[in-house]
Amino acid sequence: MTAARSPGKSLTPHEVPANLRPVSQQRVTSPDLVLPWGRTRGASEAPCPSLVLAWSLDEPERVGEILAVRGPACIGRGENLADDPAPRIHPMRVRPGYTIPRLPIANARISRQQLAVSPLEGGQLEVRCIGRTPMFVNGRAASEAVVSANDLIELRNAAIFLVTERRATLAEPRSGDEPRFDFGVPDEHGIVGESELAHRLREQLAFAASTSRHVLLLGPSGTGKELAARAIHALSDRRAKTFVSRNAATLPEGIVDAELFGNMRGYPNPGMPERPGLLGEAHESTLFLDEIGDLPERLQVHLLRAMDDDGEYQRLGDSRPRRSSFRLVAATNRPLSSLKHDFLARFTHRIHLPSLDERRDDLPLVMRSLLVRAAHADPSIAERFFERRGGQMAEPRVTPLLVTRLLRHRFTHNVRELDRLLWLAIGGAREDYLDVTPELEAELGEPVSTATEASEVDASAIERALLDSSGNISAAARALGLRNRYVLLRLIKKHGVDVAGTDTEDA
User: Fold this and answer.
1) Whole-angstrom Cα distance, residue 381 to residue 365?
2) Who's near 38: CB < 8 A, 6+ residues apart?
């Protein structure tokens, strides 16, 4: 399945002067809120059930846009219609401090009245398929369903929506700065994501960078701790100095002290050259120590004094103390109990980096970013798997099956794992698009099947599929995701569906 060529990318709000933007692209700000410490910031509204566009055949550049469902509503192609069963929702791009309403859905494969949605208690969403394009919920054909966060709604061969809870407006960023990067692409520090968690992380990193305090980064493996540490350095007043990075778990046993604090010539072994150590290298800069939980307790103790305001330490073999004005950014995926209490107390800023499972609505954007990075590293990937627009690389061609499988996968190593899975898809591809390959299927650890179980198809879904296929049994079976036409014939008999005028002998 190849993706259709997409229309040209629209300008972002940062590329057009505010007074020249159409109404649909002007900022929609939230009401002001006076905070206890006397500052005024835009208020965030309460989260509501929302649909995040995770894949679109005709409009891949719109991935990441959301449709917030505040009440009974209709979702479909084009502008509002007088006969819409409820107010129509158009996609929007939500960023801290403002919301950008977007143009209506233009996907020709989606009906003008495609979905009727209504919020329920507990963040759930009632959804009914009222258009011609068959609906699948978590891979199962359905005409209506009640969905919750992380459920997937697929409009067959048209679009995929991820169910989540989102805010239609976010508070102004603490720094007062608007995002200066285009929607859906990595920011200047390489961080990808448009979810509230992603923007909150950016704000936390900016705040930590504005101080001189030591920072502890927490979170599972593969969440980008070194990327976050480099962002803190780049945003700080230490940015002119070289960023110093080391994995504490790889420090050579026996000479860890020398690696950290340096040594004089000939000490501790004859012929050993003089070295400044990591603390000396990081003077007036940032020292990043990954896997800090693997640092022996005795060395945690040795670092305590250096982490205080005077930054005092001593090289091995040297009788005089030295000082290093360094800022320590450490990272660990271990429990905090692995760190000594007084050592842990030195980290006044602690930042949790969310996993992909926590911000699953960002996964399609991260996926696209990783594929773009691979294409830049290998031009043959760009030539084979990317659309070209105006002679330039545009959007990657991926199947909806690949997107849904990755969205339903539980990641243990997060972005690092996603990158590896995408390379499996690249290496095993047989066509000019990326799909679930046998190698990837084995890695994901669960069987791949596009076939819907017969018990999951109801009478109304059958009737709609037959109507859309003009009574062609085989075509209707394919649209419903059934294994073959004979399964559909048995279901027609079971549910007593009227097949008058239907060709039951079609090929």
Assistant:
1) 18
2) none
For the chain, first and last CA: distance in Å?
A: 22
Can you state the angle between helices 459-468 and 473-480, rounded to 10 degrees? 120
| Measured CA distances, 303 to 111, 276, 285, 307 (Å) | 64, 15, 16, 6
pLDDT of residue 151: 94
Which three-class secondary structure string do you get for 18-37?
HHHCCHHHCCECCCEEECCC
Render pLDDT for 284-299 as a digit per residue (tens, 0 to 9). 999 999 999 888 888 7
Q: Looking up tokens 């940032």, which residue turns up?
A: 286
Instruction: Please choose, from the candidates 426, 410, 441, the residue with its C-alpha nearest in 3D space to the C-alpha of residue 222.
Output: 410
Nearest alpha-carbon partner for 205 in 236, 170, 179 = 236
User: Rounded mean pLDDT of the chain?
Assistant: 84
Q: Quote the distance between the C-alpha of residue 50 and its chain's center.
A: 16
Give domain 1-178's CATH number out of 1.10.275.10, 2.60.200.20, 3.30.930.10, 3.40.30.10: 2.60.200.20
pLDDT tens profile 361-376: 999 999 999 999 999 9
Which residue bears the tokens 């909806």?
400
Q: Dihedral angle at the C-alpha atoms of 440, 446, 450, 456, nearest 10 degrees? A: -170
Separation CA 454–CA 483 (nearest Å): 9
- Residue showing tokens 């305090």: 213
| Relative orientation angle of helices 473-480 and 485-495, to the nearest 10 degrees | 90
- How would you class 377 by CB atoms within 10 Å of its CB: exposed for 0-12, middle for 13-18, buried for 19 or more? exposed
Domain ranges, ordered by start, for the chain? 1-178, 196-352, 454-495
Half-sphere exposure of 298 (CA within 13 A, CB side): 4
CATH numeric code, 196-352: 3.40.50.300
Contact 214, 327 (CB under 8 A): yes
CB-based contacts of 342, cutoff 8 Å, min separation 6: 304
Q: How many of the other CB atoms lie within 10 Å of CB of 72?
A: 13
pTM of the model: 0.79
Q: Looking at residue 177, what is its pLDDT?
A: 65
Burial class from Cβ neighbours inside 10 Å (0-12, 13-18, 19+) for residue 500 reads exposed
What sign results for the dihedral spanned by CA atoms 104, 109, 114, 119?
negative
pLDDT score for 26: 38
CA count, 13 A, side-chain hemisphere, 66: 27
The Cα 328–Cα 215 span in angstroms is: 6
- What values do phi and psi take at 376, rounded to 5? -70, -35
Return d(Cα 51, Cα 114) in angstroms, integer. 14
